[in-house]
Amino acid sequence: MFVAKLRKPVPHEFVLEAITPLSPVTRPMFGCLAVYIEDKIVLILRDKRGSPTDNGVWLATTEEHHESLRRDFPNMRSIQVLGKKVTGWQVLPADAPDFEASALLACDLVIARDPRIGKVPNARRPPGSGAKKPQKSLKQAKPSRNAAKGRTRP
Predict the structure, then answer these.
(1) Which of 44, 52, 89, 111 is the most buried (most CB within 10 A)?
(2) Contact (Cβ atoms closer than 8 angstroms) between residue 43 and residue 106
């Protein structure tokens, strides 16, 4: 008997539809859906029923762009689940009254290749190549009996 694995529905699928001309690629990330355009991560789509605090569209940006983006997205804020007051990532909250309009504007900015949205992620490490553990100090090798007696081999 075969059991088909059910796929989770795509959160805020209208966002992917809006940027379809750019051929977005998606990958699961943090229980959400990361959206890439070429080598840049541009958005994360989040809709977690049990933890709705940061549901919506996450913008990949940097702190230097927050002020200018906030003029376009007045309800944009830092992501709370990351535990920092201010993060590079910003969220367009799904519960904001302008959510759909803001998400579609973000899509327009992505299509226009606005430099404020998108980051090239750090290179991924191959599986199992985590940080190396420090090596234990090696015991000093005992000198051979011959070396200890001052003898050498001819």
Answers:
(1) 44
(2) yes
Question: Cα separation of 24 and 38, whole Å?
Answer: 8
Question: Which residues is 37 bridged to in the sheet?
Answer: 40
**Contact by Cβ (8 Å): 45, 137:** no
Name the DSSP letter for residue 87: -
Q: What is the pLDDT of residues 43-73, one digit of tens each?
A: 999 999 888 999 999 999 999 999 999 999 9
Distance between CA atoms of 151 and 154, rounded to whole angstroms?
9
Q: Which two tokens stand for residue 100?
A: 């759909």
Output the six-digit token pair for 46. Answer: 């989040």
Is pTM beyond 0.70 here? yes
Amino acid letter for position 9: P
Task: Please name which of 89, 92, 93 lies closest in space to residue 117, comparing C-alpha atoms.
Answer: 89
b/e per residue 94-117 (b: at least 16 CB within 10 A) = bebeebeebbeebbebbeeebeeb
